[in-house]
Amino acid sequence: MSRRPAGGRVRTVYLGSGSFGAPVLRRLATHPRVELVGVVTAPARPVGRHAVPTPTPIATLAAALGLSPVLTPERLRAPAALASVLVLEPVLAVLADYGQMVPPALLDLPHGALNLHPSALPRFRGASPVPATIAAGDGDAAVSLMRMDAGLDTGPLLAVAHLPLTGRETAPELEARLADLGAELLDRTLGAWLDGALPAVPQAVDGVTQTRPLRRADGRLDAGRPASELERLVRAYLPWPGTYVEVDGERIVVTAARVEAGTPGDTPGALVRHGAEPALATAAGRLVLERVTPPGRRPMSGADWLRGRRGHVG
After folding, report:
1. Which residues contact 127 (CB under 8 A, 6 or more apart)?
2. 14, 50, 86, 106: least CB-packed within 10 angstroms?
3. Which domain holds residue 185?
4. How many angstroms separate the CA atoms of 264 and 266, rounded?
């Protein structure tokens, strides 16, 4: 990346780690108002059974686009790490799915630090907005472009783009669609922001909700809840933390399910036959297990798993 300004372009650093930010980086790399002077991402992490150090999706994309430097600080707030960014003399920072707190020195750049967040802020601030949107059964999803402040997703909004939902989306599918929508939103609004023609409006004080990082235990399908809620969790918690039922002491991972009506004799928590498929009886309706992964085995249809079971299913 050249350090020499050109035309009306502004010196910009991009911060991101997850795949949600990849379309944004692609747009910034060719945006007529942006001189991309650096990319900041998380360090390579061990992945897989053999713990192979693997770069982030953003590091991989930056290499493919021929971008440099690519900085991978363990802690961006460490003085040496921050200095390595500031020496690039940016006047704008753009973030998407970075995963670290941003130091005040970047928040206070002349054009600020802009963040793309996949929800209609102030709804679903925090770490897991996409799963939360699906789990809540919302009729639409959104991406918000905000100027960051010192709080967690509390900064004033520049623009919001909405996306209607069908009620069949999984988290990976929805995140990919929102990533593209966010890149388009940034592309069409960045020029106005840089020209001072786009105001940053404080977030509403009503409707604030907070999300947290998901844990493995969140994936247990509680039969005391309605089947419709559990079906949404199956889609929301792909690929992490995943959802599961416990059958005869074994944890059966559920990757696809649907809701069917129950029968008067259903006992919540019981695994019952629904035609050729297994189903979890719940507080309201049956959750039919369409795709499962038993311990130590490959993914399979619920019907195939049921045919191979030796234990009793009602």
Report:
1. 211, 212, 213, 214
2. 50
3. 10-210
4. 6
For the cut 60, the answer to whether the pLDDT of residue 40 exceeds it is yes
pLDDT at residue 4 is higher than 50: no
Q: Could you tell me the end-to-end alpha-carbon distance of the chain, in angstroms, rounded to an integer?
A: 65
Closest by CA position to 39, among listed 52, 54, 22: 22
- Structure-token pair, residue 7: 């035309």
Pair 127, 29 in one domain: yes
Calpha distance 242→58 (Å, rounded) = 24
The Cβ of residue 180 has, within 10 Å, a number of other Cβ atoms equal to: 16
- Per the CB < 8 A criterion, the answer to whether 35 and 12 are in contact is yes
* pLDDT-based confidence at residue 161 (cuts at 50, 70, 90): very high
> What does the pLDDT read at residue 311?
61
Contacts of 289 (CB under 8 A, 6+ apart): 245, 252, 254, 257, 277, 278, 279, 280, 302, 305
CATH code of 287's domain: 3.10.25.10
| Residues shown for the chain | 314
